[in-house]
Design goal:
Blueprint lengths: L1 E6 L6 H10 L4 E3 H7 L6 H10 L12 H8 L3 H28 L4 E5 L15 E6 L2 H12 L3 H9 L4 H7 L2 E4 L4 H17 L2 H28 L1
Parallel strand pairs: 1-3, 1-4, 2-3, 4-5
Helix pairs in contact: 3-5, 6-7
Length: 229
Amino acid sequence: MFLVGLTGGIASGKSTVVAMLQELGCVVIDADVIARQVVQPGLVAYQRIVRAFGPEILTESGEISREALGSIVFSQPQKRQLLNSITHPEIQKEMLKQILKYFVLGYRYVILDIPLLFETIKMTRFMKLTVLVYCDPQTQLSRLMHRNGLTRAEAEARVAAQLPLDQKIKLADRVIDNSGSEEDTKRQVLKLHSSLEDSLGFLWVRFVAVTAVVGAGGLLYFLLQRLVS
C-alpha cells in the first residue's frame, strides 16, 4: 500500500474532490475529522488546549468551540503554532492507526486528506504522490466569504494564515484545478483515479513488508532453536 497526500487551501474545493474520490471507492482518511475526534473532552489534547487557551473557549456543554478557538489562532500566529504543537502529534498517531488497518486489509493505496500537508513538511516524506486542489485567489476569497459569511478582510486573514496556493503548486506532484465547473473538476478526478488504480507502487511496499516479516520470523525460529538445543 502506498500513501497519497491530498491537500488544498481554505475554500479551494477539496471537500468536493474528496467526495468524488469516495464515490469512486477510494479510501480517504480525513485529518480534519480526526482533529475533531482527538480534542473531545477528557482526551490528552483537550486537556492541554484548555490549559493553554483558558476555559473561555469552551461551550456550555464543556466541548471546545471551534469558532472561539479559531478566532484566536487565525489572528495570532504564535497561538496557532501552539495549537498545532498540541494537536498534530495526536492526529498523526490516529492516522497511523488507520493506515495500518487498511494495510492489513490489503488496500493498494490510501488517500490522506491533510489541509496543512505542505505546512507540516514532515508528512510529505511518507507520500508517494502529493495532490493539490487549486483555485485562483479571487475565487477562493469569494467562496470563503460566501460560505462562512465573512467580510473580505476576515476572509483575507484566514487565507493568509495558510501557505498561498500559488506556492503549493510548486510543491505538489499533481494539481486539480477547481476554478471552473464541477464537470471539469470531475474529469480531472477521474484521470487521477485511473492513474492510482493503474499504479504498481504498492507492490514494492508489500515486498518490503513481507521481507521484514519473513526475516523476523526466521530470526525468532533461530533463537527458539538455540534455546531448546
